[in-house]
Design goal:
Layout lengths: L1 E4 L4 H12 L4 E7 L10 H15 L3 E5 L1 H17 L6 H20 L4 E3 L4 E6 L2 E6 L8 H4 L4 H5 L1 E2 L7 H10 L21 H6 L7 E4 L5 E5 L26 E7 L4 E6 L7 E7 L3 E2 L8 E6 L7 E7 L5 E10 L6 E6 L2 E12 L1
Parallel strand pairs: 1-2, 1-4, 2-3, 4-7, 8-11
Antiparallel strand pairs: 5-6, 6-18, 8-9, 10-11, 12-16, 12-18, 13-18, 14-15, 14-17, 15-16, 17-18
């Protein structure tokens, strides 16, 4: 029996549809991982949409609440990273700890052999075991968010949408009469939803004002707290034009944690925004861990095209990446994910970048 994680959206609905059409015994599972405490949370609507899909497909739907696990395993990490001045990607941890962690364990308690999701990715059996590959639809590919799965989690996973384009997914949903065929895609943080981010983060991270400065030390204004800004950010600086400076956009280039100072520059390609070497934390591998330098493609953020780099494994498990071309706004807390063609090799959190 295959259990499909149903979010109430079109992608997971079509994943269930495809498995039913292939003759599998299918059941749905709706995860509630965030308390419904404000107008931005859509859990009730999403649950009703998932129920409507299951009625149309003639499959049972289970509902499970992982709110406590999400707060302990994902959201606590999210807040710790922001308070430390980094910019995390909680979706990656959510996939490993929640969807393919506690949820996969629940699937097995239900009697499920495999757990399917609406992710755009491909899982293949290779000569040395299971492999994670990019989806056919590169514009929607989500292998970046799945790179931190443990191999047993990947072995239990199914990604039925891996060979489809997004337009084909909506066409199949429409042809099958699924009620969510035209439902807009969600673009918010995993399970938290779409909401004003500065306002949301401010509920958990206190303001800690400090100076906004040029690299030369000239003070231009006051920031609200380093947690509320990310490298490369253009908007929201509230410094506008300043006497003696060109009327050009300002960008966040550095966070000086020891002085609580935000360093800004003018020019989209200012040298302080560019880095050629990146140091990561301990890498997580979906292949046998390399011990010598090798060439690979790297994504330093989601939706970035693969960048050519040399990967140097360090003795402590961390990585040093030497990029062929300078990379803009490399952000500590985000993930560097490595590829060989379509195959995802693994990845690691970015710790620092050098010019």
């Amino acid at each position: 029996m295959i259990v499909v994680g149903l979010s109430g959206g079109v992608d997971s609905a079509v994943a269930a549809l495809l498995l039913r059409q292939q003759g599998h015994e299918v059941q749905g599972l709706f995860m509630a991982n965030w308390s419904e405490d404000d107008s931005y949370c859509t859990i009730s609507t999403d649950h009703q949409d998932a129920r409507a899909v299951c009625r149309e497909l003639g499959i049972p739907l289970h509902r499970v609440d992982f709110t406590d696990e999400y707060r302990q395993r994902v959201f606590a990490y999210f807040l710790t990273e922001y308070r430390a001045g980094r910019t995390p990607n909680p979706d990656i941890l959510c996939n490993r700890e929640i969807k393919f962690g506690v949820c996969l364990a629940h699937v097995r308690r239900l009697g499920g052999d495999r757990f399917a999701t609406g992710h755009y990715a491909r899982r293949r059996e290779g000569g040395a075991g299971v492999e994670l590959h990019k989806a056919r639809d590169l514009a929607k590919d989500q292998s970046y968010f799945l790179h931190a799965l443990e191999r047993p989690q990947l072995e239990a996973a199914l990604f039925p949408l891996g060979e489809l384009l997004k337009i084909e997914v909506r066409e199949r949903a429409r042809a099958a009469g699924l009620p969510v065929h035209d439902k807009p895609d969600s673009t918010g943080i995993c399970f938290i939803g779409e909401r004003p981010f500065r306002e949301f983060l401010g509920q958990y991270v206190a303001d800690r004002p400090g100076p906004i400065e040029t690299p030369e030390g000239e003070r231009l204004g006051t920031h609200h707290g380093l947690a509320f800004y990310t490298l490369g950010q253009r908007g929201g600086l509230e410094i506008g034009g300043r006497a003696g400076h060109a009327e050009a956009a300002w960008y966040v280039a550095r966070k000086m944690l020891e002085r609580n100072a935000l360093i800004v520059v003018q020019g989209h390609a200012h040298p302080l925004l560019l880095s050629s070497r990146v140091t990561t934390g301990v890498a997580h591998w979906l292949i046998d861990a390399p011990t010598t330098a090798f060439k690979a493609g790297v994504k330093l953020r989601y939706r970035q095209a693969d960048q050519d780099c040399e990967v140097l494994p360090l003795a402590d498990g961390r990585l040093q990446l030497r990029c062929k071309e300078p990379q803009r706004a490399v952000t500590p807390g985000q993930f560097a994910v490595l590829y060989d063609g379509t195959r995802c090799l693994g990845g690691a959190v970015i710790e620092a970048a050098d010019h």
